[in-house]
Write the structure tokens for this entry.
Amino acid sequence: MAYSLNHFSIRTTDIEATRVFYESVLGLTVGPRPEFPFPGMWLYNGDHAHLANAMVHVIGIDARDPQGLKDYLGDKDASSLHGTGALDHVALMATGLEGMLAHLKRLGVACRERTVPSIGLHQLFLDDPCGLVVELNYPAEEKARLDAKTVGAHA
């Protein structure tokens, strides 16, 4: 058997803040979503014609009418909806580190950076509005080029 990650889902009481984060920070776009008995949206990375591009499924919690969600996916206590719980983070491969760092700075979005030289990754860790940690993995060579460029500018 072979597996690949299809999507991740986020339960939230603030659909709009979640949408804004994933659209403005990661450039995902709202696309088609089946008619479910609860509010939500699917955020796509690429063409909306391909369901495999529906990377983030946002599950809205309607406090006035929670039954549809309870019946479909089960109930969760509202206090469990912040942070990652047992899931520590979601990681995405990416390119364009310099552009992303400039983009995050323009948006005022904080990130934590780490480099893992033994596997050639430079990582950015971001927190979404629900407290879910999103890890963006870039080739370490991008970070090295960026550092060399910065050193050259200060010489």
Summary: The chain has a mean pLDDT of 89. The chain is about 30% helix and 30% strand.
